[in-house]
Write a structure and sequence with these properties.
Layout lengths: L28 E6 L10 E3 L2 H8 L5 E2 L5 E4 L1 H10 L5 E5 L11 E6 L2 E8 L9 E12 L2 E12 L2 E10 L7 E2 H5 L9 E4 L10 E6 L21 H5 L3 H4 L7 E5 L2 E3 L6 E2 L9 H7 L2 E5 L10 H9 L9 E2 L2 E2 L3 E5 L2 E5 L5 E5 L2 H14 L18 E2 L5 H9 L2 E7 L3 E4 L14 H17 L10 H20 L8 H4 E4 L7 H5 L6 E4 L10 E7 L2 E7 L3
Parallel strand pairs: 1-5, 1-14, 10-11, 14-17, 17-20, 20-24
Antiparallel strand pairs: 2-5, 3-4, 4-15, 6-7, 7-12, 8-9, 8-13, 9-10, 15-16, 18-19, 21-22, 21-23, 24-25, 26-27, 28-29
């Protein structure tokens, strides 16, 4: 309301401040896809810690499919290494073959006149057969009448894991209704869902634990070839990364984990193009960076073959590598790393490096910024004690030229990531830091310009958009994220009548043109040492390892 300025003095007005720039930083979120003995197959589950992952997906347990064949999954090792290397909360989704998705265990809860409702395991698989329940009842007065109140306990492997107190059949007088309470997305059960609810029937009291049953495991390897080094994961997933990331906002680091059958001759299954349903679906998101794990070299004599065939050319990287071109949204890492095996303790195991690399990226994002290449001395893998394959200097050059990032021992850092390239072979976004800086800027701009939707499309709005972009890019340049001696060399922002023509304004469009000068990491350090003597000199050039 306007203030009546009728006399000299100081007048106070109250208003609402709206920060158009959304000053809170955009953090990268890691998403892991892989096989597990239990867990959601339809929605990514947020894991704040390793214990959260164990509760939702079963830790290092062996995975058995519908065949049945048992598999070692590298998903738990990836998530464990992620947290060990400084990773923040992440999302995980279990993948199965949708042609044989498995069956969830269930149990019809009886009443005196038939089934009152059915409890079904949240996820498919035989793990659901470990669930059970009990029902108890009390009677209390409500509005002068006796009313039945039920308490349902949920058990897992005989241990009480959830209790839902004092629920009623009809939810009358503001009481907790059985079906809505157990199925509540936030406060309901994390183990079971309730269906076929009949409000005319009261569940029978059970003093002993009643087990769920009928759960069967899904298929994992599909109908593809089972030969070693075959990118057979594609036929196993039946789920796309595009679907998995649909509920996640902000920059995403995606890791597709491999697995192997537990046989006398292990067979490895590796993600490839079809696993993510189409590269186009990822590019449309524009905020997903993929860390690509590769199958390990099994003998030192096959290192060159492994490098050229299974890393740079095969279907393993078909996701991002076609002929002589590549994709800057993907980076490949080799070799596998050796870490202490948490299960069983006291031994070591070679695992794909993707989870550890994702943790390193998150750590460097926090300590240095997304614009710092996740490589070098600061990119040490804290839980690694070795690498599965050590390459010669010549092999390192070959691998680096193929835009594959090598993990190797480094004096003073231990085992460290010593490569920072994407699969693209040219431009500033051939580096991981360049592509991820672009993702970061795009996400900040998207979030910071939401205020402009449906505002009047004129010079005032254009100036507001320029201001919002300036408050993102100026600090980024000051932190060293953009190159240039001054802001004018680091970026430009344009939003005026030259690009917002009357025709565009009438069409409801406003255009903001932003250009940024990305930093290039110092990938090669060349030191020229000159031996100087009066009247002449000789020179030697030293390139650090």
């Amino acid at each position: 309301m306007a203030t009546d300025l009728s006399r000299p003095g100081v007048y106070l007005e109250e208003g609402t401040f709206v920060d158009n720039t959304n000053a809170s930083p955009v953090s990268s979120t890691a998403l892991f896809l892989g096989i597990a003995p239990k867990g959601s197959t339809t929605t990514p589950v947020r894991c704040e810690s390793w214990s959260d992952y164990v509760a939702s997906f079963g830790g290092f347990d062996t995975v058995t499919d519908a065949t049945p064949v048992s598999y070692k999954s590298y998903l738990p090792y990836a998530v464990y290494s992620y947290f060990q290397n400084g990773g923040r909360p992440c999302y995980v989704q279990r993948v199965v073959d949708t042609a044989i998705p498995g069956v969830s265990a269930f149990k019809a809860v009886s009443s005196s006149s038939g089934s009152a409702f059915t409890l079904t395991s949240e996820t498919p698989g035989t793990d659901g057969n470990n669930l059970g329940y009990t029902v108890s009842k009390t009677v209390s007065k409500v509005n002068g009448s006796d009313k039945d109140f039920f308490t349902i306990n949920i058990f897992y492997n005989g241990n009480l894991v959830e209790t839902f107190f004092n629920m009623t059949i009809d939810g009358a007088y503001g009481t907790s209704k059985i079906d809505t309470t157990i199925n509540d997305a936030s406060t309901g059960s994390k183990y079971v869902t309730l269906s076929a609810f009949d409000p005319a029937k009261s569940p029978s009291v059970t003093t002993s634990v009643q087990s769920l049953s009928g759960g069967t495991n899904p298929a994992l390897k599909g109908s593809g070839s089972a030969a070693p080094y075959t990118a057979d994961y594609a036929s196993s997933t039946g789920v796309s990364a595009a679907t998995a990331i649909a509920t996640i906002t902000g920059p995403i680091i995606l890791n597709l984990t491999s697995f192997e059958s537990i046989e006398s001759t292990p067979k490895y299954y590796i993600p490839n193009t079809n696993t993510v349903s189409a590269v186009a679906s990822i590019k449309e998101r524009g905020n997903v960076f993929i860390i690509n794990d590769s199958v390990p070299a099994r003998a030192s004599t096959t290192v060159d073959t492994y490098t050229t065939t299974y890393v740079t050319q095969s279907g393993i990287t078909g996701l991002n590598y076609t002929g002589t071109t590549g994709d800057s949204y993907v980076a490949s890492y080799t070799p596998w790393i050796i870490v202490p095996d948490p299960s069983p303790s006291g031994s070591t195991i070679a695992i794909p490096p993707g989870g550890a690399v994702a943790g390193v990226m998150n750590r460097i994002d926090t300590t240095n910024g997304v614009f710092r290449a996740p490589a070098g001395i600061i990119a040490s893998i804290t839980n690694a004690v070795g690498v599965e394959t050590k390459f010669t200097e010549t092999q390192l050059g070959t691998i680096n030229a193929a835009n594959v990032n090598v993990i190797r021992p480094v004096t003073g850092a231990g085992i460290a990531v010593m490569g920072a390239r994407t699969r693209k072979i040219y431009g500033p976004d051939k580096y991981v830091s360049g592509r991820r800086t672009l993702i970061y800027v795009k996400e900040r701009l998207r979030q910071s310009t939401q205020f402009a939707i449906f505002e009047n499309n004129d010079q005032r709005l254009w100036l507001s958009l320029i201001s919002a972009a300036e408050q993102i890019l100026r600090p980024l340049w000051e932190q060293g994220g953009l190159k240039g001696n001054n802001p004018q060399e680091a970026y430009y922002i344009k939003c005026d009548s030259s690009i917002n023509t009357p025709a565009l304004v009438q069409a409801g469009e406003v255009r903001l043109d932003v250009g940024i000068a990305l930093q290039y990491p110092a990938e090669f350090i060349v030191i020229r040492v000159t031996q100087y003597e009066t009247g002449g000199y000789t020179a030697e050039v030293q390139t650090p390892n």
